[in-house]
Design brief:
Layout: H1 3-20, H2 22-46, H3 60-91, H4 94-98, H5 104-110, H6 113-133, H7 143-171, H8 177-188, H9 200-205, H10 210-222, H11 231-241, H12 244-262
Length: 268
């Protein structure tokens, strides 16, 4: 069965549900403007040309705006797949969906498309508002390269999310690891500040998290005056982390097959 009709059906379903709560739908996006304004005021407090930001062009507002935008992807994308599985388990529709001609992994992936799309739109909206109205300095000619980094980042986070979904299928409960991953990323991945300001032992841990490389590479590409000398290293690391996507798909298929064999698909 073609994946496109499945993807469209799930996306339109979730879009209609979100649109039915119009106040929440609009307020989530409007609240991003307040976040951008807050970052603008904080950047004014810190001033410009901070030595810790020299590698990234020296402008803290542009630096932190890119990091904050990427952080908007982390929690929704890593939690979307497990959330979709758990909701279907609790409502009793999970086993019914898996009896259709569509593959189990395509159902889980497609049921999370709206959450992934909404998170991506919010990230882009934050960057656009910052650039158009608050003076963020981006090299717009580099947009195709930034898009490639975003796609790789979503692929990596989706792989982590699929591993989480595999855990939910197997054990019928949410796992704590993705929340720990997001929290660790906010702490040591250079989302709000350069990793160079961290204690040495934390700075050594930061390359182990994919968002470290996503944030650094996006800034090297997108910021005026940024030093691109280390961009290749971050690109190689990010490409390596992309292996998490096929690993996540494999783990999900294994857990689905195990649940079918043991007759636990309908349990929650």
């Amino acid at each position: 069965m073609s994946v496109l009709p499945i993807a469209r059906a799930f996306f339109m379903r979730d879009l209609r549900v979100a649109w039915s709560y119009r106040f929440s739908f609009f307020f989530q996006n409007v609240s991003l403007v307040f976040s951008v304004v807050t970052l603008r005021f904080v950047s004014e407090l810190l001033g410009k040309d901070n030595p810790a930001l020299a590698t990234y062009g020296g402008d803290y507002f542009s630096f932190v705006l890119l990091g904050a935008g990427l952080s908007l992807l982390a929690y929704p994308v890593t939690k979307a797949f497990a959330g979709a599985v758990r909701a279907a388990q609790v409502t009793g529709t999970f086993e019914a969906m898996l009896t259709t001609r569509a593959s189990g992994s395509s159902i889980v992936i497609c049921s999370s498309l709206y959450a992934l799309s909404a998170a991506t739109v919010q990230m882009l909206l934050m960057w656009m508002v910052g650039a158009l109205f608050f003076g963020a300095q981006f090299r717009l000619e580099q947009i195709p390269f930034v898009v490639a980094v975003i796609v790789m980042t979503i692929a990596i986070l989706s792989g982590i999310g699929l591993l989480s979904a595999a855990f939910v299928v197997a054990f019928k409960q949410s796992e704590p690891f993705t929340s720990a991953f997001v929290a660790a990323s906010l702490l040591v991945s250079g989302i709000m500040y350069p990793t160079s300001v961290l204690p040495r032992w934390l700075e050594l841990l930061s390359p182990l998290l994919p968002l470290t490389h996503s944030a650094a590479l996006t800034r090297f590409i997108f910021l005026d005056g940024a030093d691109t000398a280390q961009a290749g290293l971050h690109l190689g690391a990010l490409a390596g982390f992309c292996a998490l996507l096929p690993i996540g798909v494999f783990a999900l298929n294994v857990s689905l097959n195990w649940a079918r064999r043991t007759g636990t698909l309908s349990q929650y």
